[in-house]
């Protein structure tokens, strides 16, 4: 019996151990799976946090980059808003007539056109960061020359150097913003609202300096703005190419072309580029002619006093407001269609300024014209992004902006040349004609994409 019981016991114990062993073997894999799932969950949480941090960093970096470009455009507006209030004082200081003082605009035009062509050659070789900083340095040099009030030939040479630098910066800033994939249309409007802010503020300062003995010290203020612009561009973009800067905000590089022709030849071979460039040339010409010569018109024809320079601020202030406040109108009506409406309203108001001999009424109408003209430039740039090949967009918009900027010199010079023969009262019919030409050119621009990429 004892043996049998021992046998039974010996058989029973292994059996129990086996059961326990099997049970443990069954449970152990479940414990490992649980640990693995916890580890995966922790990894996913960590990855999610990293992704959110990267996205947040990209957004902050994108805002910093956009802010630097807005300051760059603020400087462009500051420069364009300066000339109008100072023009009568420049005429008196240098004892020159309308056509001679208009050489300021001729030399600026030479600078703009040279910069537009140079940008097409410099951009592929040196890249966004280096080219835009070069443009800013040119402006610093120009303001150093102008602040000294040198003899008139050297003074207008400063405008040529300034124009060259502005063309490079205008081309790069517009091309960069047009390449953004995150709400580029609204950002283009805000970018050019910054231009309007600069053009609004500079006449307020220039009007004061125009009445002081050291009138040219206004350009020391411009020098300060330009120096800060140079430092910002170097600090934010670090002389890097556009693709590198876009990568810093989480955006993939743009498309690359496959054509064997150089980018220069491809861009200049696009009909739409030239239509948009001439539209911008006339538009910018109208904008700067109003802001530049309207002060002289108000003083000579309407009997305005020294404070008439503030009318230029009213115009550029309207320009800034229109580029932001009318964004919703552009979306509702459609950008292409609404530009025709704006152009017709602007022509009507310009006729009011021409025919109604009221100083206050004219000042109000000029400010409203600024509001209406404001959205046109951003609309044209946004439209370029829709009708031009994506892989040529940056270079194309650079050419359009740089070439178009020549209008800020060419058309004001034409105005001065005509005014020297027919008087400054010829300004209003000339502006109406320019606006009509601008509307006609916009009608020639294609409605939809004709890209060949």
UniProtKB/TrEMBL annotation:
It comes from the Eukaryota. This is MFS general substrate transporter.
